[in-house]
Amino acid sequence: MINIIGGFYKELCLYPEWDYHYGSGGRASAIVSGLCSDVCFYTYIHDNKIKDIKHFSEIFNIKLSCFSSSEIINFEYYHSLSAPNIHTFNNPIQFQKQLNIEGEIVICYGMMEAPNPVINSNYLIFDPQSENNPSLVFDNGSFFNHLAIIMNVEEAKKFTGKEDIDFIVKIFFEKSDKLEVLILKDGPFGAYLYYKNEFFYIHAYETENVFKIGSGDVFVAVFGYLWAKEKLEPIEAAQKASLATAMYCNNQILQINRSNLDNLESFKKIKIDKTKFDKKIYLAGPFFTMADRWLIEEAKFQLEKFGANVFSPLHDVGFGKSDVVAKEDLKGVDESDILYAVLNDYDPGTIFEVGYAISKGIPVVIFIENKTPINMTMFEGSGCIIESDFSTSIYKVIWEVARTK
Description:
By secondary structure, the chain is α/β, with parallel strands linked by helices. It has helices at 23-33, 50-60, 153-160, 165-175, 215-229, 234-251, 290-305, 313-316, 322-334, 348-359, 377-381, 390-403; strands spanning 2-5, 10-15, 18-21, 39-45, 63-68, 73-79, 85-88, 100-109, 118-127, 143-152, 179-185, 191-195, 198-202, 204-206, 268-270, 280-284, 309-311, 338-342, 364-367, 385-387. The strands form four sheets. It has a nine-stranded mixed sheet, sandwiched between helices. It starts with a strand and ends with a helix.
C-alpha cells in the first residue's frame, strides 16, 4: 500500500479556469492511484467537506483515513504562476491535532492546518510545502529507514538560511544519516538530485501548455512511488517523475499510464544553464490603463522571478517626448535577445516593436487573449510564438531565451 498524507483543499484559478478539490495530498493520491491500485489518503476534513472527499475517493478508487477538522482552506489563483490568495474558515487558522501514521511507504506533504505528523515507515518521501514556516521530520519523533526530501530551491534556502547550494546540501545530509536522496526543484531549470555524495541533473521537458498549480505535487508523488515501490534508482525515478510532471502541466490530467513513463522522448528535454542565463528580454506592451499596467508589472515580475534580465520601456524609459521615447525603445530592442509582447487590443506601439524585432531577426513571443484570425496573419507568418495563456507564454519566453546564442 502507498500511504499519502497531505491537505485536501479547494483550488480556484481564473486563467485558465480550474475549480476542483485537490490540494497536495489529494492530487498525489489521484495520480498514484493510476499507477497503483492500493492507495490510502490521510487528511483532515471539515464536516462541510465530507461529501466532496467521498466523491473524490470514489472517482479515483482511493481508501480514506480522515480526521475531523475545524478548518476549511481554499486557494485562489489569478493565473497558474501567481501566488495564491488563501482563505481559511477561521482567522487566524486553527491548528489541528498532530497525526501518528504507520506504513511501509509514506509520501507526506506539509499541511497548513497541522504540524508534521509523527511517521513510522520504511520509506518516507517528504515535501515540506512551505517557505514561510519551514519544518522537517527529523526532530518530531518520526522513524524511517530510507528518507527522500524533495522541495524547491527557494524553500531550501529558507530552511537553511543559506544561498549557496553546496552549503544547503551539506546541511541537509548532516541532519540525518537516514537521508538518502535530496531533490531541489527549480522550475524551468529542471531539478538537482543528490545521492551517495554525487550530484545528478534532472531535465525539465518542454510542453505545448504550462499549467503549474500542483506540478510539484505530481513530481513528488511519482518519484515516491517509483523509488519506494518499484525500487528504481533515484536518478531514473526522478527523470520519469519529471516526465509525469510535463504530462500533467500539458493536459492537466491526473491519471497517467505507467507505460507512458518509459517513453522519455515523448516531450523534448531542455537544459538551461542558470549561471549563463543573462540574455535580455524586451517587454513590449501598452501601459496606459490600470489593466495594462498590472499585466506589464506581472509579466516583469514573473520573468524576473526566474532570474531573467528584463528591459521594460515603462520602467527603463518611461514617458516623454515621442522622438526621445521611440529612440530609446528601439535601442532597447536592438540590444535585446528576445521580445515578449503583450498584444491585447493590438496596441500600435507594440505592433511596431514586434515588426521591428522581426526585421532584426530577434525571436518574438506574443501573449494575446483576444486574438482574431484575420489580425494574426503577419505574426503567424513571420514565425512568432503566439500564446493565449499567460503562464504558458512566460515559460515559452524562458525556453526560447535558452535557445538564443
